[in-house]
């Protein structure tokens, strides 16, 4: 037990002496660092003298010459030198037709032929059918008039009564080229068409 105490005392003395020696070395070297003169870097500035005597007259462009104020006068024609016996050319005036009649109703020039669709308006999807996710179609029958409009629309068949009113309104906005027989437009009854209602994804 006494041996341990003695060993501990010896170790403590050695550590203490080592620390004192290390502190002495640090103090000695610190004094040298403070007293040693430092090397300072020097910066040299070179100032360029501005050339203030610039010749600004060389940079101004020359003015273009002024255009003549009045154009040169044309020499007058010498009417005394015209030969009266020179041959002349007679040009007849063009003939203009005064026929302005245009055939067809309302002044339209309509050629012979059957009726043709010009404008087809898409129907408005009914809100009730759209909310239910309902799809279908409506078969319509109507008359194409002499002016190309639609009259007397009739529902032939429909998958749902919700589509009939929208299909009728769409058909009434259709436009056609009327049927012409012997130069006279005529009505075309019983024209069939199908209006389809489909929800686009």
Name the features.
201 residues, alpha+beta, TolA/TonB C-terminal domain, 3-stranded antiparallel sheet, 24% helix, 20% strand, elongated
What fold name goes in the CATH topology slot of the domain at 111-197?
TolA/TonB C-terminal domain
Structure summary, number of beta strands? 7
User: Are there runs of 5+ residues with pLDDT below 50, and where?
Assistant: 94-110
- Highest-level CATH class of the domain at 111-197: Alpha Beta
Q: Order of strands side by side in the largest beta sheet?
A: 3-2-7
Class of secondary structure makeup? alpha+beta
- At the fourth level of CATH, the homologous superfamily of the domain at 111-197 is TonB
CATH architecture of the domain at 111-197: 2-Layer Sandwich
* Residue share in β-strands: 15-25%
Number of helices: 3
Order of helices and strands: HEHEEHEEEE
């Amino acid at each position: 037990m006494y041996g341990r105490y003695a060993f501990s005392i010896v170790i403590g003395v050695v550590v203490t002496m080592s620390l004192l020696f290390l502190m002495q070395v640090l103090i000695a070297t610190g004094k040298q660092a403070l007293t040693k003169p430092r090397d300072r870097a020097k910066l040299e500035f070179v100032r360029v003298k501005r050339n203030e005597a610039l010749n600004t007259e060389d940079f101004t462009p020359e003015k273009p010459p002024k255009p003549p104020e009045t154009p040169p006068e044309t020499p007058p024609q010498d009417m005394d030198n015209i030969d009266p016996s020179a041959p002349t050319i007679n040009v007849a005036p063009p003939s203009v037709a005064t026929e302005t009649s245009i055939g067809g109703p309302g002044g339209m020039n309509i050629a012979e032929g059957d009726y043709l669709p010009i404008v087809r308006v898409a129907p408005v999807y009914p809100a009730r059918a759209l909310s239910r996710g309902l799809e279908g179609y409506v078969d319509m029958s109507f008359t194409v008039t002499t002016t190309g409009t639609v009259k007397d629309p009739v529902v032939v068949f429909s998958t749902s009564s919700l589509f009939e009113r929208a299909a009728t309104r769409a058909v009434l906005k259709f436009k056609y080229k009327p049927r012409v027989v012997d130069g006279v437009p005529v009505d075309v009854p019983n024209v069939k068409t199908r209006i389809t209602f489909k929800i686009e994804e």
